[in-house]
Amino acid sequence: MKNKSDPTDIQDGTLTEPQTDAESSRKPSGFPLTFSGVAFFASTGWGRLFFWQSVVAAAVAGSLMLLFGQHWSPVLNSAIEQLPEEGGLTEGRLEWPENHTGTLAGNQFLSVIIDLKGSQPHGQTADLQIELREGSWVAGSILGYLEFPYAIDTFEVDRITQIPWWGSRRPFLLICTSCIIGLSYCVISLFLGLIGCWASKTVAFFASRQSDTTSLWRLSTAAWLPSGALLSMGCLCYALGLLPLMGLLVLIPVCLVVGWAYVLFSPLLLPRLVDSGNNPFNPLDEHKDLNPGNLPNKPDMTKSDNPFV
Q: Which residues span the domain enclosing 116?
C-alpha cells in the first residue's frame, strides 16, 4: 500500500513531494485582518479581491450616509427654510437682503452662515462651516479656510424655489455622494496597490518569495482592506458622536501607516522559491531529477561478446 508521504508524484519527469493535509486544507476564508490573510490574495483571483473591496466600500458609504442623513441634512433643511423670498446669484454675485445675514442653521457638525462682506468674526462654530459671501463662498474647519468662487453665474436662491428642489432630490444626493466616496476608496486602493506592488516585489525578491507582478498587485491592493475597515469604523464613530473630528483626522495617517505595513510584511508569508540545485553548465545534471525509467540506457558490459572485457 502506497504511503501518502512518499514523493511518488511525477510532473514532466520530475519527482515532486505531495502536499500535506495541513497545506491542502489551508484555504483563505473571512475578512483579511492578518498578514497571512492578505498574502492569500496573491494566490486567489481578482473576484475575491473585488468582493471584499465592495464590502469595505459599502461600509464607508454607509457610515458617511449616516453622517449626511443624521447631522448634515437637518441643517440644510433648516437653512433652506430660512431663505428669503427673493435672492440669488446674478453674474456670479450673491444678492441677499441685509436683514437676513448671520447664521442660517447649524450644529456641531455643520453650520451655514451668510456674511456678504466677510467682515464679521464668526469663529469656529462647527466641524464644517460654510460662509456665503457676496462674490465667493468659504469652507472652514479646524484645518483652516478655503475660498471658492461661485461656479454658477445665475441661480435662484429663495425659499419658493429651493424648498421643492431640495425636497425632491435630497435622498438621491445623499446616496450618490456616499456611493461616490465609497467607490473612490476602491479606485484609490487599486492605485496605491499598483504603486506598492514594486515595494512588495522588492521584499519578495530579497526574501526569495513568489514575485509574480500580477499576484503582488492583488496582494498590495488587498493590503488596504484593513485600513479601509479601520477608516469606516472611524467614520461611524464620528457620525455617532463617539469620536471628535480631530480624532478622525488623526486616524487617516494611521490608516496609511497600517496599509504600508501590510504591503511590506505580507510578502514575507508568500510561498518560498525552491532552488533545484542543478548546474546548467554541467551536462551530468541534465538527467539528475528524471524518473529512473526515463534515464538513457547504458550498455551492459557483462553480456559483451568481447573476450578481452
A: 84-157
How far apart CA 145 and CA 131 sit, in angstroms, is 10
Q: Are 61 and 179 in contact (CB under 8 A)?
A: yes
Joined grid coordinates for residue 299: 550498455
Q: Kindly state the average pLDDT of the residues 129-143.
A: 88
3-state secondary structure of 112: strand
Residue for cell digits 492583488?
Answer: 218
Is 25 contained in some domain?
Answer: no
149 to 118, 135, 136, 200: CA distances (angstroms): 14, 7, 4, 43
**Phi, then psi, of 250 in degrees rounded to 5:** -70, -30
> What is the side-by-side strand order in the sheet with 102-106?
102-106, 110-114, 128-132, 136-141, 144-149
- Between helix 73-81 and helix 159-206 the angle, nearest 10°, is 160
224 three-class SS: coil
Closest CA to 266 of 201, 194, 213: 201
Instruction: Assess whether 184 and 37 both reside in one domain.
Output: yes
pLDDT surpasses 70 at 233: yes
